[in-house]
Amino acid sequence: MAIGGSDPGGGAGIQQDIRTVTVLGGYGSGIPTALTVQNSLGVEDVSPVDSLYLERQLENCLSDIQFDAIKIGMILTKENVEAISKVLTRYAQGIPVVLDPVLSSKNEKALLKEEALKVFFDKILPVVTVITPNIPEAKRLLGDEDDQTIDQEELGKRLFKLIDGLTQRDIAVIIKGGHGTEGEKVKDVLVDRDGKVAIYGQRIATTHSHGTGCAYASSLATFLGAHVSLRDAMRLAREFIEISLRESSSLGAGIGPVNTLTILKR
Ligand code: PLP
C-alpha cells in the first residue's frame, strides 16, 4: 500500500509507487493524501485530501485487504499525519512500514507543512519500521541544515539516536546519498540496532530524476514485503534506482522521471 501525494504527471507520488510495485511483480494500491498541480517544470500547488476522508480510505482498505508492506510518502498536513498515525497504529502491527520523509519538491514547494513537521516525530515514527531521508532531509529533521561538515554516517547515527530517544522504538535509518555531489559512487548508509552498513552504487549523471525518492522507498517496501532482509532490500533498491536513472529521459520541457519501466525489459 502506498500512501502519498498524487502526481498527475505520473513521475512521482503514488503513481510512481504503484508503477514500481507493479514492475517488481507486486500488487500496488494507492491512497492519496494530497492532490498536486505539477508537471515536469515543478510543483505549482498542493491541496490536501480531507483528513477524515483519508482516515476512512485507509480504514476501509486495511480492514479488508492484507497488505505485505506499507510505504508512506508526501503527507502535507498535521491532520493527515494524525489520520495516518491513528489507522496504522491499529492495522500496521507486524507489517514493514517505509517512511520517505518528503519535505519539499525540487522547486522548493513545501510538501510537509511546518505545523505537520512538529507532530511528525510524535505521531508518524511510532508506526514506522524504516525511514529513508536523503542528506538534506536528514539535516532538516535533525535541525542541522547548515552543517556542511557532517557526514552520512554521523547523520544516520544522530537521527537513529534522536528517534530512539523519542519513541523508544527500533527504527532503522537509511540516509540516501543521491543528493551528495562527491565521487562516482553513491553511498547509502543504514544505521539500526545492529550497527551501520554502507551500500555503494554507481552515480548516474542525469537531470531526469523526478520520482527517484518515491521509487527507492516503494521498491524497498516491496522487497521487505517479500521477506527480503533490510540489508539485501537496500542493495536491490539501489540497483533498481541505478537502472531506472540510467534509462531515464525527458518528458515535457523540464525534469523527466526515472524510468522504472526499464526493469521489465530485463
Ligand atoms: N509530488 C509528489 C506527489 C511527491 O511525492 C514528490 C516527492 O516525493 C514530489 C512531487 C517532488 O518531486 P521532485 O523532488 O522531483 O520535485
From TrEMBL:
Keywords: Kinase, Transferase
GO molecular function: hydroxymethylpyrimidine kinase activity; phosphomethylpyrimidine kinase activity
Residue stretches spanning the membrane: none
EC number of the protein: 2.7.1.49
Residue ranges constituting the Pyridoxamine kinase/Phosphomethylpyrimidine kinase domain according to the UniProt record: 7-259
Keyword Metal-binding: no
Keyword Kinase: yes
A biological-process GO annotation: thiamine diphosphate biosynthetic process
Metabolic or biological pathway: Cofactor biosynthesis; thiamine diphosphate biosynthesis
Entry GO CC: cytosol
Enzyme class label: transferase
The name this protein goes by in its record: hydroxymethylpyrimidine kinase
Natural source organism: Dissulfuribacter thermophilus
Residues of the full protein shown: 1 to 266 of 450
